Amino acid sequence: MINTQPGNSEIMQTAPLFIQQHVSLTDFNTFGIGATARYFALIQTSLELQALLLEPAFHEIPKLILGDGSNVLFTQQYDGLVIKNAIKGIQITKENEDHVWLKMGAGENWHQFVMYCIQQGYGGIENLSLIPGTIGAAPVQNIGAYGVELGDVFSKLEAMNLNDGTIKTFTREECQFGYRDSIFKNAYKDQYAILSVELCLDKKPQFHVEYGNIKDMLQSMQIQDLSIKAVSDAVIHIRKSKLPDPKELGNAGSFFKNPLISHSHFSELKKNFPHIPSFPNENSDSIKIPAAWLIEQCGWKGKRLGDVGVYEKQALILVNYNANNSNGAALLALAQKIQESVNEKFSVQLTPEVKVC
Ligand code: FAD
Ligand code: EPU
User: Fold this and answer.
1) How far away, in angstroms, is 290 Cα from ligand 2 center?
2) Which residues, 6 or more positions from 145, have their beta carbon under 8 angstroms from its beta carbon?
3) What distance in angstroms lies between residue 289's CA and the mean position of ligand 2's atoms?
């Protein structure tokens, strides 16, 4: 039985579960927001998670599965149970001449895994180098960058139902991946903890270098022979030149998704804003436009309001200039002001990519 009486950030019960109370989340989110969690548990195995979920004291309270906190914004104290996922392990589950299937614990670090695959010569995720966070969070928003998405190499995942502790396998189809989207942000929002993810990678890699300025970067790096390592290096160079390092400046990457608008809306906007950019067509029903451009046109780029602001080199990134404080509410207020001005000027509603708690 786990003691759930309020305490002062001390450990409440011994093995197998360590549940702390009133724990600072500053080091558990890349914005560096100093919110606290009412209850906090670090889990290293699915059995530990199951035991935690079956504990009657936690049946009715809100639960947040946390990876590395690189896509969450805490706007207030978290009055529930934060479950920090630290399930580790990487194993090859299947292999043939062309492909290798790898299954990873959800608490493995994404970028370290990408580096491991590059070392082994497994291709497919080199364009996703340097994305912060855990393996388990990657399917939640179907992480993507430089022309590749997780869904392109995804095989299956195992997840635990937070209501009854049962485990279900999800195929790629069942995950319903879309642009920064999956079933875990819709029908099964906050319903499952992802325990492990299996990917299918290439032993004979195909290179994706068409997107953005990867080719230019490869050229300026004087790369003669294309390799997955070279593509990864190019992506890392580009990312470092554009995105703030959360260790130096609190942020969660793109705060909003790039909006998808109808062709007729885009034609209307083009009349008033002839230079409005758009991404190459992925979906015939709609056009994706860069939120960063809309935000910059509204004059927000580089603006600072007290301790929070819009990054000077990339208008889609909101930043926290002062870690370990309660700037979450101020960041949310800034995000809402940005949404209002973009809506007023362009009649486009921006949707946050970041999970607001
Ligand atoms: P968290 O922030 O801890 O959680 C994010 C969401 O996933 C929450 O809703 C959480 O409840 C849920 N979640 C986490 N783990 C699990 C689990 N095991 N089971 C169920 N739900 C879970 N994203 C991109 O797609 N492309 C980019 O290029 C990119 N660049 C970034 C650059 C920077 C500098 C930063 C700070 C962020 C960037 N992101 C990018 C966003 C972020 O890295 C990804 O969303 C990442 O997958 C989040 O991982 P995490 O472990 O930190 O998740
Ligand atoms: N732009 C501006 N002003 C800016 C920045 C960009 O006008 O300050 C315009 C330019 O027209 C530029 C376009 O926006 O060509 C796109 O900018 P960028 O290439 O920097 O990409 P993004 O759309 O802002 C998306 C993802 C990133 C991902 C990159 C590379 C989303 C919400 N964001 O950013 O993902 O790394 O492409 O693929 O889709 C994240 O999700 O957290 C993230 C960082």
Assistant:
1) 6
2) 127, 128, 131, 235, 239
3) 10
Active site residue 353: yes
Pairing outcome for strands 250-254 and 192-202: unpaired
Q: Which of 129, 158, 180, 232 is catalytic?
A: 180
- pLDDT for the residue 314: 97
Residue 143 CB: number of other CB atoms within 10 A?
A: 21
Active site residue 70: no
Residue bearing the CA closest to ligand 1, atom 13 = 137
Point out the ligand 2 atom lying closest to the alpha carbon of residue 180. Answer: 39
pLDDT at 17: 65
Q: Which of 143, 179, 254 to mutate to test the pocket of ligand 2 (most atoms within 8 A of CB)?
A: 254
What whole-number distance in Å separates Cα of residue 7 and Cα of residue 23? 10
- CA 227 to mean position of chain CA atoms: 26
What pLDDT is attached to residue 224? 82
Task: Look up the CATH number of domain 250-356.
Answer: 3.90.78.10
Per-residue confidence (pLDDT) for residue 83, from 0 to 100 = 97
Ligand 1 pocket test, pick from 30, 71, 125, 314 with the greatest ligand atom count within 8 Å of Cβ, gives 71
Tell whether ligand 2 has an atom less than 6 A from the beta carbon of residue 235.
no
Pairing label, strands 260-261, 167-171? unpaired
Show the low-confidence residues of the chain (pLDDT under 50): 1-15
The pLDDT assigned to 10 comes to 37
**pTM, rounded to two decimals:** 0.94
227 is catalytic: no
The topology (CATH level 3) of 90-202 is 3.30.465
**Extents of the domains making up the chain:** 8-85, 90-202, 250-356
**Whether CATH 3.30.43.10 fits 8-85:** yes
Q: What ranges make up the beta strands (E) of 191-348?
A: 192-202, 250-254, 260-261, 287-288, 304-305, 308-310, 317-320
pLDDT, position 11: 37
